[in-house]
Amino acid sequence: MSRLNVNGLCKSFNSAAETISVLDNVNLTMEAGENLSIVGPSGCGKSTLLYILGTLDFPTAGRVEIDGVEPFGLSASAVAKFRNESIGFIFQDHHLLPQLTISENVLLPALASGVPSSEVVARAEQLIADVGLSERVHHLPGQLSGGERQRVAVARGLLHRPKLLLADEPTGNLDRATTETIAELLFDLPRREGAALIVVTHSTWLAEQAGRQMRLENRQLVEGQGANL
Ligand SMILES: Nc1ncnc2c1ncn2[C@@H]1O[C@H](COP(=O)(O)OP(=O)(O)OP(=O)(O)O)[C@@H](O)[C@H]1O
């Protein structure tokens, strides 16, 4: 069973004056442990695609199957549960809560459903160690650098062992050296755990680090490698 199956995905937005078609017949299959980068010009629909794959928005047409589940056929509460259990997100601006410690931020996906089990707490500790921040667990996000905050976001995105990890411009505000550190974690940790990772980025360098590279062009996904990006 593939980790992700997208068939004939379409998305358009309606306004009073017109209908804007953003995605038209997007097809994609990914296996466990695979990582994929998607590039494309501003406004071509990259974030829209990630939001749909993350079940935060819905397609106008087409079929999406994540780890054997068709999320858009589920009730709203079942989709929310599925999203929380099966999908991880990493955003450009990390979305950490400033008043919570690093440890609490990593545990945030678990706190939504009550007091985390000792197993989940141990998992958070391990992930914080994996991203090299064990000394900073009691610090607040404001006490960390941008790159360190993004490492926390990587750890948090992985807490629930997601089947699908979605990263939208994860190194957008970072310098090259920090981008390299984040890239190492981003492409290594999910692969070790069998998550399928999709990274949307404007950085050609980051895109080229992914095992598989695609471009969103004319509302469709096309395979591209190196210079063809
Ligand atoms: N809710 C919405 N209503 C109407 N149009 C929308 C909506 N959301 C996105 N769009 C349009 O869809 C298109 C794709 O937007 P999207 O944010 O997916 O692009 P992107 O490739 O991620 O861009 P960037 O690289 O600049 O972040 C844009 O033209 C945008 O204006």
From TrEMBL:
It comes from the Bacteria. CDD domains: ABC_MJ0796_LolCDE_FtsE. One of its GO terms (cellular component) is plasma membrane. This is Lipoprotein-releasing system ATP-binding protein LolD. GO terms for molecular function: ATP binding; ATP hydrolysis activity; transmembrane transporter activity. It is an enzyme of class 3 (hydrolase). The gene is lolD_3. Its EC number is 3.6.3.-. The keyword Protein biosynthesis does not apply. Gene3D superfamilies: P-loop containing nucleotide triphosphate hydrolases (3.40.50.300). Keywords: ATP-binding, Hydrolase, Lipoprotein, Nucleotide-binding, Transport. It holds the Pfam family ABC_tran. Transmembrane segments: none annotated. Residues 4-229 form the ABC transporter domain. Belongs to the ABC transporter superfamily. Macrolide exporter (TC 3.A.1.122) family.
